[in-house]
Specification:
The chain has 171 residues and is mostly loops. The chain has three helices and no strands.
Length: 171
């Protein structure tokens, strides 16, 4: 369960939260299983937070810092993650159905067994991202940077992914 104090500070807004994060850099926020459906978290520094099993469906995380965040079994369906930093995030078994991840940093993000069906990853950086056993049916990889065919080979429905990046080859 989410730490009540962390949840309370999060609900005060981006300025207070980011200042608290700056002043308490040693704290790894615990927002496990929090109901943040539809929350406006644009620009929030959630780096390294525990968001496993959290409900972030329809949340707005525009340009949020989510590096090294644990999203294990979280619900991020229909979530706006445009320009967000998810580098080194752990998204195993995460629901990203129809999520908007365009212009996001997904470097070394782990998407094992995640549902990325109909997600939009246009113009994102996916260097060494891991998609094994992920559902990428109708996922849009248009213009992605650093996408190697080997990254998608073990994903489910890789033949139905939208791959129109310059130089991209179907796995």
């Amino acid at each position: 369960m989410a730490h009540p104090e962390h949840l309370e500070i999060l609900q005060t807004g981006v300025r207070v939260w980011n200042r608290w994060r700056q002043d308490h850099a040693e704290v790894r926020p615990n927002l496990r299983a929090a109901d943040l459906q539809g929350a406006d978290l644009a620009g929030f520094n959630l780096q390294g937070a525990y968001l496993s099993q959290a409900n972030l469906s329809h949340a707005y995380l525009f340009e949020a810092n989510l590096a090294n965040t644990n999203f294990y079994r979280a619900n991020l369906s229909h979530c706006c993650l445009i320009g967000a930093n998810l580098s080194h995030a752990y998204c195993a078994d995460t629901n990203l159905y129809h999520a908007y991840l365009s212009h996001a940093n997904l470097t070394e993000t782990y998407f094992g067994h995640a549902n990325l069906e109909k997600a939009n990853l246009t113009d994102s950086q996916v260097d060494q991202a891991y998609f094994s056993e992920a559902n990428i049916k109708e996922t849009d990889f248009t213009g992605v940077q650093d996408l190697g065919p080997i990254q998608l080979r073990l994903a489910h429905y890789h033949e139905l992914a939208i791959l129109t990046a310059a130089g991209a080859k179907t796995p």
